[in-house]
Amino acid sequence: MIDLGISKMALIGAVALIVIGPEKLPRVARTVGALLGKAQRYVADVKAEVNRSMDLEELKKMRDTVEDAARNVENSIQTSASDFEKSWTDATDAALEPEAPAYKHPNKKWRLKQGAMPHWYKARNGVRTRALSGAARVARFRPPRAH
C-alpha cells in the first residue's frame, strides 16, 4: 500500500492550500473525505462478498461430503436389508405356517346411522331405541277401553 507519514501528509496539505486556495479548501476536503468514505465502504463490501463466496464454497464442499456419506449409509442399509429379507424368506419358507383364513365381509349396513351406545346395552337397561310421535305415545299408553 501507499506509505503516508506525517511529513508527506503535511506536504500534500501545503500544496493543496496553495493550488486550491484557502476559501475552497474546506469544501474540497469534505468532498475528498466523502469520496474516501465511499471508497472504503466499497472495498469493505467487496471483501465481505469475497468472504461470503469463500464460505459458500466451503459449505458446498461440506454438503457434498455429507451427501456422499448419506448415500454410502443408504447403500449399506439397502444391501443389509436385502440380505435380511432373503434370510427372512428362507426362514419363513422353512417353517410351514398355517394360512390365514380368507377375508369375510362383515355384511354391515354402512349407510345406517348408529349411536355410540350398543343395542345390547340399551336392551338390558331399558333405554328407548325408537322415538315415538306424540299421538303414538298417547295411543300406546292409553288405558284399555271397557266395552
From TrEMBL:
Residues 81-106 are annotated as: Disordered. Keywords: Cell inner membrane, Cell membrane, Membrane, Protein transport, Translocation, Transmembrane, Transmembrane helix, Transport. It is found in: Cell membrane; Membrane. Signal peptide: none annotated. It comes from the Bacteria. Pfam families: TatA_B_E. Gene3D superfamilies: 1.20.5.3310. Its main location: membrane. InterPro entries: TatA/B/E, TatB. The keyword Kinase does not apply. It is a single-pass membrane protein. The Tat system comprises two distinct complexes: a TatABC complex, containing multiple copies of TatA, TatB and TatC subunits, and a separate TatA complex, containing only TatA subunits. Substrates initially bind to the TatABC complex, which probably triggers association of the separate TatA complex to form the active translocon. Belongs to the TatB family. Part of the twin-arginine translocation (Tat) system that transports large folded proteins containing a characteristic twin-arginine motif in their signal peptide across membranes. Together with TatC, TatB is part of a receptor directly interacting with Tat signal peptides. TatB may form an oligomeric binding site that transiently accommodates folded Tat precursor proteins before their translocation. PANTHER family: SEC-INDEPENDENT PROTEIN TRANSLOCASE PROTEIN TATA, CHLOROPLASTIC. This is Sec-independent protein translocase protein TatB. It comes from Rhodoferax mekongensis.
